[in-house]
Write a structure and sequence with these properties.
alpha+beta; four-stranded antiparallel sheet
Length: about 90
């Protein structure tokens, strides 16, 4: 189980770099399809979810995983590229 101090450290690091978040055109299409989103502002949508008080940020290897509102958002920890997002099963 992840220690709470690690979660806080991960959240602080990710929040300090929110302006670096981006994705590719294919990433936008994949996220919209996976989550049935009706917005083209996928990065802004992800930023708002990541900033939500109930978001839980973890890191495994090279990726951040944000668990929020029955969704998992995956972000590359080095490039801050939003790789994908999907509904929790």
């Amino acid at each position: 189980m992840i220690q709470s101090f690690q979660v806080i450290r991960y959240m602080k690091e990710l929040f300090a770099n929110l302006e670096k978040l981006h994705t590719t055109e294919l990433g936008v299409m994949r996220i919209k399809r996976n989550l049935c989103l009706n917005t083209d502002q996928v990065v802004d949508w992800c930023k708002s979810k990541i900033s939500a008080p109930n978001a839980i940020v973890t890191r495994s290897g090279k990726n951040w995983y944000i668990d929020v509102d029955h969704c998992i958002i995956t972000i590359n920890a080095h490039s801050y590229t939003i790789i994908t997002a999907h509904r929790k099963k």
